[in-house]
# Entry
Amino acid sequence: MSLARAAPQGLERGRITNVHQGDCHVSGDLEATLTTVLGSCIAACVRDRVARIGGMNHFLLAEQSGAARDRYGASARYGAFAMEQLINKVLGEGSGRKSNLEIKVFGGGNINSSLADVGAKNAEFVRGFLASEGYEIAGEDLGGTFARRLMFRPVQGRVFVKRLDAAAGKTVAREEMAIADRQKVEVSTDDIELF
Amino acid sequence: MPKASDISVLVVDDQQSMRGICKFILNQLGFKEITEAKSGRDALGKLEKTKIDLIISDWNMDDIDGLTLLKVIRKHPRTKGMPFIMATGRSDKEQVKEAIVAGVNNYIIKPFDAGSMKKKIEAVVGVLA
# Structure
């Protein structure tokens, strides 16, 4: 079934942008829909209620980072940067006021037994991050044993979540881990030497 | 050759987790005296009361952003020569130029690790003992 046919009414039209693992997209386009597929990955949908602008990220902490001793480990640092990047982008293009943000989080499914509790660790990370930064979670669909297709209207703040079947979930989980291995917590090397 | 343990660092970021990450990395590098500021305004207050040798500041902050903080610091006779590293996700060359004009000593792009942080700090304060 095509994405357009699977989508609920109102989401199938307009400009659809796929948010791939590692991406962060922000839009104030009335017709925009941001979409992604999540297995163990997390996607946060952040919207500035006043400026009517919003965005989505998509990340996976492939290494275990839940333990206190590894709170600031490489994997958790990557997740924190992914969240900061999205929040700052929405604030920068929006009203600039944190109190105007509405944050919803999705994903973190445990869909492949060989991946242990990667999904749960990802869900734990994003909840912990938002709590430590003083943000309330306005909506969430985390955990479970399934993958999800997510569609988000950044201006309206509407989110549509479709739970995928087990076969689709296994494929998504394999792809996520392959991408995570390739992206493995790359330290930024594109910075600029001033002196 | 400066010793990390003798250098007092002010970490400025409005996100608690980012301050935590920065502090964690600085501890790994041997820094002991680390002061945190949760905003540009808070940083100015901390500079009044605390002996600081190096500032590592985020760019995007709610009240006074990193660039404004840098400009204020460069204007004040007591702090105008203070080493200042901007830590940010921005890599836009125009913004880097703006920071250079304002007198930034160095610039680090997120995400960073202990190795890249050490390199940037050493470029500013000299090779650490």
Observations:
- Chain A has one domain: 8-183.
